[in-house]
Amino acid sequence: xxxxxSQIEGPSDVLRWFGAAEADELSxxxxxVLSDRWVRELALERIIEEPERxxxxxxxxxxxxxxEAASTGSVxxxxxxxxAIQAALDVMEGERVLRWITSKLGYRDT
Length: 110
Description:
There is one protein chain. This protein is mainly alpha-helical. It has helices spanning 20-44, 55-72, 83-87, 91-104. It is elongated, with a radius of gyration of 16 Å. The model has no long low-confidence stretch (mean pLDDT 82).
């Protein structure tokens, strides 16, 4: 889910680097693709009823997390703000989805 910038050794034959605007567009596309994939998986795994209602809030939360990671350079632990996700669900569904996301990202449930 993204790459951390690092200096390259020696000369580079890259003709063009992504600027800030393009990188943000790529982050938005990545958030869209990932939210689509996760909504499908939530449906297949029957984590909640009607997971499609999470598509937009999940996409927004992912994009915000990607932007934060890009600004800090820290992508080891994606900080996904649960507020938008929980607002689309009741309390129990929100807890199930957040546990599922935590598991999906390979983080320990704390």
